[in-house]
Specification:
Polyketide_cyclase/dehydratase, about 150 residues, 7 strands, Alpha-D-Glucose-1,6-Bisphosphate, Chain A, domain 4, globular, 7-stranded antiparallel sheet, Polyketide cyclase / dehydrase and lipid transport, alpha+beta, single chain, START-like_dom_sf
Amino acid sequence: MHVYRSMILNAPIEAVWSAVRAFDSVAAWNPGVVAARMETGTATSVGSIRHLDIVDGAVFRETLLELSDAQRFYTYDIVDCPLPVQNYVSTHRFVPITHTNQTLGIWESRFSCAQDLEQDMETIVGDQIYVNGMTGLNDYLTGGDNG
């Protein structure tokens, strides 16, 4: 299945990319992540694995598959997590909105899950993870509640 969410971030692309570029920086801006650390490699090295401690006590382990400073995106897969998904690959992409000096944040993934869980995974991944994460990023960048 394909899950896609997008959001306007009230900050210029340079500030957004600076905040998210390091693969282990997610705990600074995502309210759902308590802690993030690199298990292997560096925060910008393809093939590196990050370990995320989630607010509900869950653990996610993810591999950085691709990172582009020129195109401002990173792609990762999930090595281990409590979600009932397989073959999960996600891209978090950022596009400058030059007219207003804002940024379009796009977070999407493709993965497999049991058909009877698709609606739940759409909500959990799309809204609870992606929308809540990008809302936290916007708050972080603008000095809101999470910043």
